[in-house]
Automatic annotation (TrEMBL):
Organism: Tetraodon nigroviridis
Protein name in UniProt: Chromosome undetermined SCAF14119, whole genome shotgun sequence
Region entry Disordered, spans: 1-23
Composition bias type Basic and acidic residues, residue spans: 12-23
Superkingdom field: Eukaryota
Taxonomic path: Eukaryota, Metazoa, Chordata, Craniata, Vertebrata
Amino acid sequence: MAGVPPATPDAAGERQELESPREATRLLSELEENYNKLWIKYAEAENTIDKLRLAAKVNLYSDGPKPGHLVQAVYNPGASKFMTLNFPQAQRAE
């Protein structure tokens, strides 16, 4: 019906009539604000999940040194020598 304000549920879930267009506008603004806050919380949760997944992958593929574990580097002159590898020529099968 024209001129009849829409009904909205109240806190108890019962429908109540809006008293004025100003109240409807206020309610709409409040709903939009709540909607935006929920989207922000959702985005933050998605970011947290992504960070946890990334950390799990990094920890899965790398075992870093244990805290307090000393790693010593020693120069080994024999490790820098060149080696020559000779492979026989491939032959065709007939």
